[in-house]
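Posting for a labmate who doesn't have an account.
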Amino acid sequence: MKRPLQALLARLQFARSFRVVFPGGDELRHGHGEPEFTIRFKTESSVRDCLRRATLGFGERYERGEIDVEGPIGHIGELGAALQRAGLALSPLARLRLLVGYLARRNTLRRARRNVSSHYDVGNDFYALWLDDELNYSCAYFEDPTDSLETAQRGKLDLVCRKLQLQPGMTIVDCGSGWGAFALHAARHYGTRVTGYTISKPQHEYSVARARDLGLDDRVTFVLEDYRHIALDGARYDRFVSIGMFEHVGKDNWPSFFRVLHRAVRPGGLSFVHTIARVVPRAPDPYGERIFPGFRFPTLVDLTGGLQGLGETLHVLDVENLRPHYALTLEHWYERFHRNRERISATWGEPLTRRYELYLACAPAWFRYDGVLVYQLLVAHGFDPAPPLTRRHMVERVDGVRDAWSNGYP
């Protein structure tokens, strides 16, 4: 097993030095100077599995404790991006198995609930240990790299509200409302009425209770239902919002998503889609598919192309790429996760702890080195005869609001 790995490392272009230690004590080194990290294989089968199943083999064996990483585990994400460029790939049999698994996990109405449950229903208490205080599970918006996670997440919510030009009394449908952070923010600070859709029962229960506690249950309604049921009753909204959900609907369902977006908004309204994306098309990472069953990152062409054929009045107003913001967000999440690691392991077990540890530590490398982006897409339903001439309304805050947020909501 040492020889094929040695051949792979020989063509690897990777600036960091590291070493690989095999079960019998033999080792390989890459780079010069002291190793910045060490990958320690504890079983021969774990080495074979990594060569055969790439990231999926590494991730599953790491979860089981058959592989350890000594040093900053985030370097594994950087190494993974470099190995992808060097040609590390799944074996033909592993690719076939992955395809069969992907087809089985497609987000049909029935399967979507199971896919969501496998990740999001770990428990609200679990996510509360490493997300911000409003449980935003999507890219934050850092006006300064020293911003706290809470400040950056509230900054993201307000950025979305400004892009949508929200006004009191407007109606919004939140497609994939999660734990309710956006819906509650829009109702609380902009006087809107929001209907949020989620298919996660723990998220739904949490968001309903949160709206009641804040006295917003007369303006915010959360529905435990699939997004494909939005506006089937003919309801039309002023605004459609989807934050961090589109990447989970699956490629087969992209047309359905855009049809929902189209029918849900009345003429003259706006839609907003915030999603992880890729520069060029690529099949889902096999280990990423284990963590997020049924996901697929679109390209910008996929997003804009999905609007075609739905009417000539539906058009893109604005696109923004928040790529570096997600790397910072993930680093905050990992730091909080690591701070609570002992408690997480004691409550949810070491295999799940190691799964999320690997995911959160390595994911920043997707956005820094591997062509993964975050797009915010603003779509108009009709032609406003007097639209804003600049983006100033999107980027300028009300004086003093940001300082107030640093100590919580005003």
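Reply:
Got it, the structure tokens are right above this. The chain is about 45% helix and 20% strand.
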